[in-house]
Amino acid sequence: MSALSLFPLGNALFPDGSLQLRIFEVRYLDLIRRCVADGSPFGVVVLLEGREVRTPEGHEVLADVGTLAHIEECHQPMPGLYQIRCRGGARFRLSDVAQGRYGLWEGEAAPLADDPTQPIPAALQPAADALGRLIASLQRDGTAPASMPVAPPFRLDEAGWVANRWAELLPLSPRRKRDLLAQDDPLARLGEIHAVLEEHGLLEDD
């Protein structure tokens, strides 16, 4: 295990995901400066209760699993504001979580195994096809690469990658996203995602 500074969010970051953040809270400004200076990641965890922006009366409950966020780009357009783009790294499980200076959350993080590379079975292929159509539509509309919610390389033939991208994109509850992130079987994760897409009519019959 290792000590890790945490960034609770209403949405989940999954491995290989793309995350853009505007940093202005005091508790995170120093964190980002340190991460940029030494190249270290921070941990993104789902906020099960509470608000992303800290309030005096706020009560935050964090998920017990999260994902390392590696900063790929960092800009400071003005004092007291960072704009960063991160890439999701390995998953981890948390213990001994506590708030420290300025309300920054920290915990002991134990790494979780990476997803094995699993091809997509025919029964779940519609989920990959739907994601491919979404990516193609965004590209046709001229969405800038830096603004794409899904970053290349597009591994549309891997069950874990497809499941993770949908888990980030779909408006699922924080607890549902936490459970998907904690799921160690990428095929089971994709199966859950496929069921959600089917339930909401987001799949097309080939």
UniProtKB/TrEMBL annotation:
Residues 1-201 form the Lon N-terminal domain. InterPro entries: Lon_prtase_N, Lon_prtase_N_sf, PUA-like_sf. It comes from the Bacteria. PROSITE patterns: LON_N. Signal peptide: none annotated. Pfam families: LON_substr_bdg (PF02190). Gene3D superfamilies: BPP1347 like domain, LON domain-like. This is Peptidase S16. It comes from Verticiella sediminum. The lineage of its organism: Bacteria, Pseudomonadati, Pseudomonadota, Betaproteobacteria, Burkholderiales.
